[in-house]
Amino acid sequence: DTGVSQDPRHKITKRGQNVTFRCDPISEHNRLYWYRQTLGQGPEFLTYFQNEAQLEKSRLLSDRFSAERPKGSFSTLEIQRTEQGDSAMYLCASSYSGGGHGYTFGSGTRLTVV
Amino acid sequence: GQQVMQIPQYQHVQEGEDFTTYCNSSTTLSNIQWYKQRPGGHPVFLIQLVKSGEVKKQKRLTFQFGEAKKNSSLHITATQTTDVGTYFCSTNTGNQFYFGTGTSLTVIP
Residue of A21, A28, A49, B18 with fewest CB within 10 Å of its CB? Predict the structure, then answer.
């Protein structure tokens, strides 16, 4: 296992377009998290899954944001009708539900909305 | 809002000097985690603390969890240029997860 993988690494899109990011967690991890990070700030929690169940989504930034983890393995984060304020690094992380070992983060997808 | 606040926001030290960052909360925390993010990189897990008054060490790094479980600190002894990066504390309450704003450490050779 090579860790948490995110694709693409970079995405440039025009305002109003939809974008989708993919995250492949560490295979043994049953929890998967999405965070957003802007320059000079800490990661901002968006949502998380335990297996295929989305246990928390109230922190998704607006109804334009949605996430899925259909088979409890990889996950996708979609942003509809992108706005310039959506430009940020989107980080995925995974962990065991038992905790104690922290989150393992992917390298992130950097989104630029022009 | 932010569950945890970190100070200082920035710290510049001469190589060999010590460094400390603090993480504070107005509420009792069930746990605290520490992460390091190198410039251009992603956060990397360092340690988790769960017990009141807990102290853990990793080589030159010492992590403490306050007796009241409302604050934590990370202390680096004799900094090296490889310590450069931003250090974040993190915690969770139920299904809500929080990161502090981080302390950016610059080490001057």
Answer: A28
Comparing CA positions, the residue from A28, A29, A18 lying closest to residue A77 is: A18
Question: Do residue A42 and residue B100 have CB atoms under 8 angstroms apart?
Answer: yes
CA distance to partner chain B, nearest, from residue A83 (Å)? 23
Per-residue pLDDT of chain B (109 residues; tens, 9 = 90+): 458 999 999 999 999 999 999 999 999 999 999 999 999 999 999 999 999 999 999 999 999 999 999 999 999 999 999 999 999 999 998 888 999 999 999 999 9
Cis before A43 (ω within 30): no
CA distance A34 to A42: 13
Contact (CB, 8 A) for B49 and B56: yes
Q: Do residues A69 and A75 make contact, with C-beta atoms less than 8 angstroms apart?
A: yes
Q: Looking at the partner chain, which of B45, B97, B101 has a beta carbon nearest the beta carbon of A41? A: B101
Q: What are phi and psi of A113, to 5 degrees?
A: -105, 120
Q: Is the Cβ of A44 closer than 8 Å to some Cβ of chain B? A: yes
Query: What letter represents residue A69's amino acid?
Result: R
**Out of A56, A101, A103, whose CB is closest to B95?**
A56
Cis status of the peptide bond prior to A8, with omega within 30 of 0: yes
Q: Is the CB of A98 inside 8 Å of chain B's CB atoms?
A: no
CB neighbourhood size of B44 (10 A): 15
Could you tell me how far CA A59 lies from the centroid of its own chain? 12
